[in-house]
Design brief:
By secondary structure, this protein is α+β, with helices and mostly antiparallel strands. Helices cover 50% and strands 21% of the residues. It has 14 helices and eleven strands. Strands 6, 7, 8, 9 and 10 form a five-stranded antiparallel beta sheet that branches. A four-stranded antiparallel beta sheet has the order 1-2-4-3, covered by helices on one side. The longest helix is centred in the middle third of the chain and has 35 residues. It is extended and about 100 Å long. The two termini are 23 Å apart. Its EC number is 5.2.1.8. Belongs to the FKBP-type PPIase family. Tig subfamily. Involved in protein export. Acts as a chaperone by maintaining the newly synthesized protein in an open conformation. Functions as a peptidyl-prolyl cis-trans isomerase. It is found in: Cytoplasm.
Amino acid sequence: MKSAVETLNPTRVRLTVEVPFEELKDSLDAAYKKINQQVTVKGFRKGKVPARVIDQRFGRGAVLEEAVNDALPKFYTEAVNEAEINPLGQPEVDITELKDGETLNFTAEVDVRPAVEIPDYSGIEVTVDAVEVTDEDVEKAVEQLRERFASTNPVERAAAEGDVVTIDLEAKVDGEVLPDGVANGVSYTIGSGELLDGVDEAVTGLEAGGEATFTSQLKGGSAEGKDAEVTVKVTAVAARELPELDDDFAQLASEFDTLEELRADSRKRLENTKQYDQATQAQERVLEELLKLVEVPIPEKLLEDEVNTRKHNLEHHQLGQMGLTIDKYLEIQGKSAEEFDTETREQAVKGIKTQFILDELVNKEKLNVNQEELTEHLMRRAASSGMSPDQFAQAVVEGGQVPMLVGEVARGKALAVVVEAAKVTDTNGEVVDLDEDEDEASEEKAEASAEDAAKTEG
């Protein structure tokens, strides 16, 4: 077999392959055997029809077609390996010449990974938010904990903001009660904004047994988006009572004996959260600066496939689970279809570019992934997917996605190398030491980047 490669552009090549006919022998034998099992010829036992009879009855062309279809993937793979290229996606194959007993010639056009030159990235500088926890932040956290331990007690008075009311609702459109427009015994906290627009104003000031009518645009159901006349009846009013902020509360809500210990723990938790957020912010901003440094040509077909995949996943999976159409989603987001298309394309370009650059960094820095790193990543992915580690691992193995996970971890390590070389300062001008948070933040950022990137292998 002879092959030659022609570069059509930085992301696409054409392979020209010449195959001597004798190299088709195994595929021809397999083709005759396959046809033999599928046909019946009078006078011959099934599977024992001679090749010359198959040629006469069904045509030599049918045999050649079967043989070529069987052999092409092997010859294509050999040509790819000989040319030392990294193909992306499936090739467009064109058989240019097929002479029985003489030769098989074909071309294969395929997108390839572009050559990526990684420049010196040690000069990257980024600024991130400073880690600052105020007394107000601590009190807010304690107050939120206090809210979780609030109790409710029935009261005989008009409902006010913050009260918990039990209500019955009935919605009409054009004077007709909707089939899904009745709900009884609904518990609602006034001011929470968790129900229809206008319900807060309607129930405020009502005692148990009182009712009111208001107009509101329905957020879901059979008449979604339509204005409905809603009647609300209050059947019970309860006041929320918060526990006293004292040592007894600390013992009730935590493992601490005193309120001061609880506050100190809240401060530490907030600091840890902000340090993690800071590390994640550093990852994102360093990556943005790295992307600016490197020119990466994007394969057009790969880009179009990625854009279509993103749109499909959004419309048929994410929005489908929420009961939204793409048109309703765009309306909520306040975007036109053109703006959505532009944004999706930009995200796809960024994802593909990120993967190409980080993969090149993996090669340049000779980064490897060990079993412990892969297991930790698998556990994190399992948790985010809502599956148990065993279930997720089984799905990964059955789906042949182990190489994809290895790639995600390796890209995370590559991004960590760049962050380590960058100068990161906070908004107070202080140099930020990310050693404690960098590994985990880098791992999760790379995971997000890898999921966001196109699946360019193969």
